[in-house]
Amino acid sequence: MSTTTDHGDERVPTTASPQELVDEARRWWQTDIIDVRPGEISLRGYPIQELIGNVGFVDTIWLMLRGELPSRAQAALFEAALVASVDHGPAAPSIAIARMATTCGAPVNSAMASAINVLDDVHGGPGQQCMELYLEIDAELRRVGHLDDMVHLDEATRLVLQRHRDAGVRYFPGFGHRFHPLDPRTPRLLSLVDAAAAEGVVNGRFAAIGRAVEDAISEGRPKRIPMNVDGVTAIIYCELGLTPEQGRGVFILARSVGILAHAVEQMTQGGRIKGPMPKSIGYTYTGPARRPLPNDLDR
Amino acid sequence: MSTTTDHGDERVPTTASPQELVDEARRWWQTDIIDVRPGEISLRGYPIQELIGNVGFVDTIWLMLRGELPSRAQAALFEAALVASVDHGPAAPSIAIARMATTCGAPVNSAMASAINVLDDVHGGPGQQCMELYLEIDAELRRVGHLDDMVHLDEATRLVLQRHRDAGVRYFPGFGHRFHPLDPRTPRLLSLVDAAAAEGVVNGRFAAIGRAVEDAISEGRPKRIPMNVDGVTAIIYCELGLTPEQGRGVFILARSVGILAHAVEQMTQGGRIKGPMPKSIGYTYTGPARRPLPNDLDR
Amino acid sequence: MSTTTDHGDERVPTTASPQELVDEARRWWQTDIIDVRPGEISLRGYPIQELIGNVGFVDTIWLMLRGELPSRAQAALFEAALVASVDHGPAAPSIAIARMATTCGAPVNSAMASAINVLDDVHGGPGQQCMELYLEIDAELRRVGHLDDMVHLDEATRLVLQRHRDAGVRYFPGFGHRFHPLDPRTPRLLSLVDAAAAEGVVNGRFAAIGRAVEDAISEGRPKRIPMNVDGVTAIIYCELGLTPEQGRGVFILARSVGILAHAVEQMTQGGRIKGPMPKSIGYTYTGPARRPLPNDLDR
Amino acid sequence: MSTTTDHGDERVPTTASPQELVDEARRWWQTDIIDVRPGEISLRGYPIQELIGNVGFVDTIWLMLRGELPSRAQAALFEAALVASVDHGPAAPSIAIARMATTCGAPVNSAMASAINVLDDVHGGPGQQCMELYLEIDAELRRVGHLDDMVHLDEATRLVLQRHRDAGVRYFPGFGHRFHPLDPRTPRLLSLVDAAAAEGVVNGRFAAIGRAVEDAISEGRPKRIPMNVDGVTAIIYCELGLTPEQGRGVFILARSVGILAHAVEQMTQGGRIKGPMPKSIGYTYTGPARRPLPNDLDR
């Protein structure tokens, strides 16, 4: 390194006193989530040693995100959605990336990071976007004053979908699947929401909205466009009061399980610098034919 | 883009038939974990619709990693370790990074990825390294034939620790804490391991090994070097039969909960391009004083 | 791992012949950029061994992104923008993250990845967004037919800015700085653009547009809102014909230099699990006071 | 969020005065690299406005990493190594990942991050490891006092290689290639090193060491194991005095160019959630056959 002279103190000019600066620095990071002092940790006010062994992992996810513990019935419905989302196989880019990463020498944290990173708007966003759609229909119903009965549901649904179509939307997140004619996760999760609604655990409002969307977008088509796992987990997360951002986050938590399992399996299988395809398949070059550098290369 | 001529097919030369190439390509990605066909998904052989609502999220993590479902008692001990590991506050680089990332415009997947990525050997590895240490002591005991009784435990522990010290190791992963004089998670988790051992859920062998390590490294010191959360979760994961790599992975899964909660909280708080400290604090420049370019700049 | 039975071949049903499948697989990845065969590599058609030593790194960046080599004068202007963007110090979250990552045990690739990842819309996007703004003004000028003279520039600029203000935009990317009253990079880069325009290397159109934006947004304010490094590099990238996406990409390439330098410097400095602030500063907990678990905890 | 009470100040206890705390906080981040004050930026002491337009991008990379500017001849050799490393096509996992990421909705920063992240020990480390090997041979020569003449080079090389073989190393980084019988980048770069050594720009010592390694590992084999791009860039970086860590870093900078170009090309090509292979190829499931949940499922 170069010889150094300690002549710089890089900051914006300030007239604050040392105490004011310390106070400002201490407020720079603040959180409602966790209180850590020497020998003490509490999450949302609950001492960690009381949570451990008394409260489940799913309850803790809920507590960390929302500030309070769920009821057992809320946790059970939430848990079903998490279980449904853990994996969809190595043909998904996120899973393939986790596996490729380990063959590049990446440890499990890094393989998981590269994989989770691609759960972006297209690969990881449909659940969140579907929640936003449902909430928009919900807001439309509330706007016209139909809070409790759902008689105007189809109308509100059509209105909202049309708004999106007018804005250029061609397909709706949470409906249809590129691989499954009928997503096997959907009917099972829907029946759990219906049971929870029957028991008063949730309201059932978003299950109705989700079905109304499926009806509306399938109308006039030879084949229904059935709700997929994103469409039905969006119902569950809306029923349970999660925000769309939280919904996306818990999908990522769930899928992280599959990402981890595949990363670890690939480590066991071995392989070095695994590309997307065998070398005997290769890829196709479509660029210019081999050419010399220009004669007048000006440098 | 440039004008293209389709003249390239980039691959290694092969004499394989098309069918052989297809077969090779289909074997390129293979997995024991998940079977996905149109309309069907099963995890480790279990249809997803049977898992949903019948099997918990923690059971599913275990199933995905290990191939079979845990017993209820195994899952409970595993779950306690997961709950213990969800967060340690925004002073940890991983959590701070998740929060900073959201203020840079990163969506939740990307914020989580940047954060998880730094759970590398130093920040996320001690649990894994501690498992490796315990397993090394376990192997040493087995090597000298003391499989069942633990009378030679202290000797084997000292021998293994000395081996590490001879290789330059100065401190041992899983013991001591930079912040907590006594980690509040340790006694609670240890008592759960002991209870599980008393009920025959686990063997108790690694709880004894962990305590022997604590004794050995504290010997001759004015103050004990107490087991921390990594040391005790390493006991649990070893007792339950996880590999060190899996142990690191499930720590990451658990800590992802805190990472997500902090990312979402920061989104709610707002802020743009949040640096590590307020600008009034700034940073210190220790390089060369301001200087002109050299006179003889040769270009 | 579980006992395995090779019974699955996960794919969508197909009636394609093996040869058709191989052809489809070979077309799955295709590129105009690079031709790699055993013993041969060419970039955009140029053999790598001819590029090496004859063509500069900046020329190669241009070639890779755009398909053809730049003139020397184009490369020089492009290079000036790259040099200007390499670093803005450890108070920037990206740089702080790179440094924190290395203290967590992350190797340099991983530290760089976590850092680059946060160059998202807010931290890394203003240059791209500013290019889009300039191109929108350019399109507005073209729409009304003023291709060559710029007499209607102020009008088009005001119209476009008003469109953004009507959509809720409060500040414009590329103008104003949270730290610098006047960004020292701006006048120097602007003078290089002007010189290049005088020599016919570029058109000068976007330099005029950029200045018109600065005038328009400063109008009626006590103090000008001066163009910052994003505003002026956006001029350069537009003048040189890069797309906004490419502009963001080359900013990231440039900033990666600073990210790397800081990561390596932190490795030299050492440190373990470096948080954003010293522990004596800590953070502020603003959540609920310590509380016991609910009495009626239902599990 | 929960109702909050500002009762927490999470930090380690301290008796430091406010001024001492401020000083500690200000020293928390310190750097020799960049001095940023309102209206002023300098890199390694040089004002940014003097660097822009006068100093090249490659010079700036060198300056940022090493503290001083290179000579023109040093920069030219360094630049040749950077040009050689920009890309190796979409069959490489890093490039494939960048392309897949964009089809998942990831912006260019995020696609680049996921890709760069996998340039870990196996995919991005051989150059660094080869530098370490050369430096070990260099140290061995110095140890036995042969600083200037290289007469004992073969002996020192054999001794070091044997040491690695004894430790279980089966192949050496920087030699051999899975795809190229002869790497087209090697002879061109070697001739540039030789020319630079002839002109006294570099010493030539590491070129000799690299060739000695190639001789030694090829000895007794039917076919030579030729030096690849990592082996020859390792020579260049050692000749120029970079550390192995810096060598890995600059390889990543160079490869980032290819990563960016492929990410942007994929954005132009479009595609959504692009997996590693077409769906008609799919993958192979090798796990347990479909099975019902156990009858005695204990939960």
From TrEMBL, chains A, B, C, D:
Keywords: Transferase. Its EC number is 2.3.3.16. One of its GO terms (biological process) is carbohydrate metabolic process. It is an enzyme of class 2 (transferase). Residues 271-299 are annotated as: Disordered. The keyword Manganese does not apply. One of its GO terms (cellular component) is cytosol. CDD domains: CCL_ACL-C. SUPFAM superfamilies: Citrate synthase. Pfam families: Citrate_synt (PF00285). Pathway: Carbohydrate metabolism; tricarboxylic acid cycle. The keyword Transferase applies. One of its GO terms (molecular function) is citrate synthase activity. Belongs to the citrate synthase family. This is citrate synthase (unknown stereospecificity). It comes from Agromyces ramosus. The lineage of its organism: Bacteria, Bacillati, Actinomycetota, Actinomycetes, Micrococcales.
